[in-house]
Amino acid sequence: MKNKADLLNQYWTDIYFHLHYIHTDKITHQAIRIMQLIDKQGNIGVSEIASFLNVSHNTASEHVKRLENKQFIIKKRDPADERKAFICLTGRGKEVLDRNTSLDQEKLKQVLNELDEKEQCAIEQALKILSERAKQCKF
Q1: Residues 38 and 77 in one domain
Q2: Assigned domain for 2 exists
Q3: Is-contact 72 92, C-beta < 8 A?
Q4: Angle at the Cα of 134 (from 130 to 138), degrees rounded to 5?
Q5: pLDDT score of 85
């Protein structure tokens, strides 16, 4: 018998497998992870990326350069300290990140339209609670 974590992971992978966007971008999983970090945490630098990926500063810097060259991210100077730079997603970067991590809106709408209002509310509430608790965890 599977435990609850196993079941939730199975449900999540089923949902993502069936409802994700068709991937058209040539981008590595590592690049997506970097872009997610930038999106979720904001105002980060190469050091934070290196720590997050558990790689050297030089390796993280190379990843950043590749993403800059693709115009997915941009470095901005910290107005409070010109020596520091932080990394932001560009509009194009946000689009690529969304296509590679989100569910396809149209597919999701089709599935939700097959559910009654009570089921839709239950799903929304459950995912909201899980999202909020996940944000509170310090791993």
Answers
A1: yes
A2: no
A3: yes
A4: 160
A5: 86
* Residue 127 burial (C-beta neighbours within 10 Å; 0-12, 13-18, 19+): exposed
Rounded Cα distance between 61 and 34, Å, is: 11
In a domain, residue 4? The reply is: no
- Which domain does 89 fall in, by range? 23-103
pLDDT for 2: 79
**Pick from 77, 23, 81, 73: which is nearest to 49 by CA?**
73
* Mean pLDDT, the chain cut into blocks of 10 residues (139 residues total): 90 96 91 97 93 96 96 90 90 96 97 97 96 89
Q: d(Cα 36, Cα 98) in Å, to the nearest integer?
A: 9
pLDDT, tens digit (0-9, with 9 covering 90-100), for 12-31: 999 999 999 998 889 999 99
Assess contact for 25 and 99: CB atoms under 8 A. yes
Task: Please give the structure tokens belonging to residue 136.
Answer: 């509170």
Domains contained in the chain, number:
2
Is 119 found in the same domain as 82?
no
Q: What is the pLDDT of residue 83?
A: 83
Measured CA to CA, the distance from residue 29 to residue 7 in angstroms comes to: 24
**Which residue type occupies 96?**
V
